[in-house]
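Hey team,

Filing this mostly as a record. A colleague (T.K.) asked me to run one chain through the structure pipeline before their review meeting, and I want the input and output archived in the tracker in case anyone asks later how it was produced. No errors, nothing strange. Just documentation.

Input sequence:
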Amino acid sequence: MTIEYTKDRYSFGRPVASYQAVKHRLADHKLWLEAGFGLSTALAHALDSEDPNVSKLASVTKAHISEQSLKIISDCSQLGGGIAQTWEHDNHLFLRRATANDFLYGSARQHKERLCRLYGV
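Output structure:
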């Protein structure tokens, strides 16, 4: 939704998506999303094969997704301008869900601390 919005929204006669700083932010989002997909897939395979390191991989996956999802959603709010702050836009639902997941399944910090304990650091 954010990518489409930045393509459609014009500022100073150009689409917002044409600005280099916006392109870099969207590229970061894509990188973080793809890393999350890769970690999730690896975790699913580890669960399926009953890998003994599945607990560590679960914490790595949760820490990454928890941290990056909040960054992406917050940044999408900024890129969406005023419309992303309204009830008519779904961004607030995504932010609520990501925040609730932090409380339900542990924050990135909690999972990083857990990893330190598991690795004896």
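Quick notes for T.K.: Residues 74 and 95 are 8 Å apart (CA to CA). The longest strand covers residues 10-11.
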